[in-house]
Amino acid sequence: MINKIYVLKFGGTSIASTERINYVANRIYSYVKKGCRLAVVVSAMGNTTDGLIKLAKKINPHPSEREIDMLISTGEQISASLLAMALHKKKVDAISLVGHQVGIITDAKHTQAKILQIKTDRIKKEINRGRIVIVAGFQGMTTYNEITTLGRGGSDLSAVALAASLRASMCEIYTDVEGIYTADPRIVPGAKKIKHITFDEMLELASRGAQVMQTRAVEVAKRFNIPLHVRSSFSKKEGTIIMGKISYIEEPVVRGITLMENEIKITIRNVPDKPGIAAYIFNQLAYGDINVDMIVQNVSRKRTTDISFTIPESSVNKIRKLSNKIIKKIGAESILTDEDIAKVSVVGVGMKTHPGVAAKCFHALAKNKINIEMISTSEISISCVVKKKMGKKALRVLHKVFGLYKTSG
Ligand code: ADP
Ligand code: ASP
Ligand code: MG
């Protein structure tokens, strides 16, 4: 094990207090004793990032994204320096570095920046001097020295990207649950921990609402084939390994169920039913930097139709800005916003070869009097939009009907 580089990442709850920071320092110390060379990525303490965003909105309900990045990037700087101090107390040579000191270069898309390059000279130099490097996650810098952040949950991405550029032999994601479960264990207490899961399945779970791993982090792990070990910082138990290939005797049909509660439904009413309209609408949304998820176009009545789609609730201001322009240009009646929705998804690569999953899902929801407002399917997932207050119930119903309480492995 001597001299291998490990990347460890500790999430917000793992370092939510000074006691927890000291505990994490002890945990890091056990790696140091084994002779491991470490880059440790940290999130902001507890709910610091949410608190900072609230603070900004008290000052200005529509803060500029550049200033939001200036503000929220500070959370990780606090935890990185405190953790370095905790290690110094244990006589461990450690140094904290923020994004630009680590050489994480991003594009200029504030609050959602993409990593373009990591200049690893500084971090390698520190590691080679025998130092434990504590990296403030979630942030980078543009080529014009502007501070950027990598999207919510972005410290996962910092860790995976660093593991890729340092060619680390291990990337461990320490969090507040014992691994990846068949559903969020806080909502479905009987959910089972999964021992191994493929990048593809994890990507689908993450993008459909399992916030335990940031979707973009899983994408990078898949691209560079970096196995991830997601585990608890509150116990010593083995967690879940996310990896490229698993040799199943029989692939599970359904891997997990997810719930997404932070999307909204937009309906454009009475859209003229002619070629080019959908292209125009979704082009405008793309230019406006709005990610569209499900799209449903209703049957045409009297040559007009309704188009509904879901977007992240954080894009509500962006769509409001575009509404008038779109309505005028295409001659639609109005744009309605519905915040009262939740999306449940059934995910599993095995669904490709097993018919009947959709029918089972719809039947279970109907039997429990849960109305489905929108449906979308892919080869490996089925998603249903339901009323927000029905979301958690729908999650539990589907988890039960697909027998996931019994699965493991
Ligand atoms: P961190 O601060 O460590 O990054 P997050 O809050 O981002 O942690 O992610 C961990 C949380 O993800 C858990 O507390 C859990 O409630 C939630 N979660 C949602 N879906 C799942 C799932 N399928 N398996 C495990 N955790 C999940
Ligand atoms: N602190 C950031 C957030 O809350 C990044 C992270 O936790 O990964 O989104
Ligand atoms: Mg997270």
Q: Please outline the major beta sheet.
A: 8 strands, mixed
Mean pLDDT: 94
Bound molecules: adenosine-5'-diphosphate, aspartic acid, magnesium ion
* End-to-end Cα distance: 27 Å
Provide the β-strand percentage band. 25-35%
Share in helix: 25-40%
SS content category: alpha/beta
What is the strand tally? 20
> Reading side by side through the largest sheet, how are the strands ordered?
3-6-2-1-9-11-12-10
Radius of gyration: 23 Å
- The low-confidence runs, each spanning 5 or more residues with pLDDT under 50, are none
Please tell me about this protein's structure:
The protein is α/β, with parallel strands linked by helices and 409 residues long. Bound molecules: adenosine-5'-diphosphate, aspartic acid and magnesium ion (MG). Adenosine-5'-diphosphate binds next to loops.
Task: List key phrases describing it.
409 residues, alpha/beta, binds aspartic acid, single chain, 20 strands, binds magnesium ion, 4-stranded antiparallel beta sheet
Concise account of the structure shown:
The chain has twelve helices and 20 strands. It has 409 residues and is an alpha/beta fold. The strands form five sheets. An eight-stranded mixed sheet has the order 3-6-2-1-9-11-12-10, with helices on both faces. A four-stranded antiparallel sheet has the order 13-18-20-19, sandwiched between helices. It has a four-stranded antiparallel sheet with strand order 15-16-14-17, with helices on one face.
Topology (elements, then pairings):
Layout lengths: L4 E6 L7 H16 L3 E6 L5 H12 L5 H25 L4 E4 L1 H4 L1 E3 L8 E4 L2 H8 L3 E5 L2 E3 L5 E3 L4 H12 L4 E6 L20 E3 H9 L7 H9 L4 E5 L7 E4 L12 E5 L2 E10 L4 H11 L7 E3 L6 E9 L3 H15 L3 E5 L2 E7 L9 H11 L6 E5 L2 E7 L3 H11 L8
Bound molecules: adenosine-5'-diphosphate, aspartic acid (ASP) and magnesium ion.
